[in-house]
Amino acid sequence: MKTVLGRAANTVNAHLTALDLFFTQLGLGPAIVRRDDAPKLAPRALDARQQKRYLRAVERRPLARDRAIGRLLFYSGLRIAELVALDN
After folding, report:
1. Mean pLDDT across the stretch 7-11?
2. Which region, left, alpha or beta, applies to residue 47 given φ > 0 means left and ψ of -120 to 50 means alpha?
């Protein structure tokens, strides 16, 4: 599937997981297939134009809370999950 259809490793692994669940539901157990490792890619940074666009969108938010969240994400580099965890 990866070579014939040109699918990414994550796509192929997702399909194999679906097949595992299907075979398990039939009582056959998971399919014994080697999965490819997903490439470890670093997150992409926003370019200058995207940064300005993001900050303008944040400033248009009517609630101060929303503007604070947007600024905190942008200026601190927090991930969304880390920001949500601040409430706990």
Report:
1. 82
2. beta
